[in-house]
Design goal:
about 190 residues; alpha/beta; 7-stranded mixed β-sheet; two-stranded antiparallel sheet; about 40% helix; about 25% strand; globular
């Protein structure tokens, strides 16, 4: 199953993704981390997320780019990919001196990478950011939003469940019957 959780900054999407991951897979899981650590603020964010995942049986794989090239020895029970906005930025500005790459080729690379992860896991949970509220500022932001938009459209099509986290509450855009909350815990309603 593929589950995507999107939402604004601080919306609770990471916690929701981790809780859903626990409902889908009680055993070992792979956390595919896309953030490049550049400064103290990003280090603090990474540490906060690591503490949040403690006890959840997550092994961390640092993959700020090149997701389609990851090699798996066996099929994973669950992969949690966090997050699409970092991956888009890392892939789009991966040229020499962070030169912008071709947006169409970049979107295709990311989409192939997500498909590759889905093929190599029983479940894939993807965290995305809601980016499309502010309009287009300049040519580079337009290219970034073009790539992110293509990836989000793919995720909406490919996902069995698509949730927007709004103030920590789930708003289902797709697949509301597959995952539910009972007494504050996520439950996977398996279909045999």
């Amino acid at each position: 199953m593929v589950v995507t959780i999107t939402g604004g900054s601080g919306s609770g999407k990471s916690r929701m993704a981790e809780a859903i991951s626990e409902a889908l897979c009680s055993g070992p899981k792979l956390y595919a981390a896309t953030m490049r650590v550049y400064d103290q603020e990003s280090r603090k964010r990474v540490e906060r997320h690591r503490k949040q995942r403690e006890g959840g049986q997550f092994a961390t794989l640092e993959c700020p780019s090149g997701v389609e090239r990851i090699r798996f020895e066996k099929k994973e029970g669950l992969i949690l990919l966090e997050c699409i906005s970092n991956l888009v930025a890392n892939e789009l500005y991966s040229g020499e001196q962070f030169a912008m790459q071709d947006p169409k080729e970049t979107a295709g690379r990311i989409i192939r990478g997500i498909g590759h992860l889905a093929e190599n896991a029983d479940h894939l949970v993807v965290v995305a950011n809601e980016l499309f509220q502010s309009g287009i500022k300049d040519r580079e932001m337009q290219a970034y939003l073009q790539v992110a938009g293509a990836v989000h459209r793919f995720l909406m099509e490919r996902s069995d469940v698509f949730i927007e986290s709004v103030y920590g509450l789930p708003y289902f855009w797709k697949g509301s019957g597959l995952l539910t909350q009972e007494k504050g815990k996520w439950v996977w309603n398996k279909k045999d």
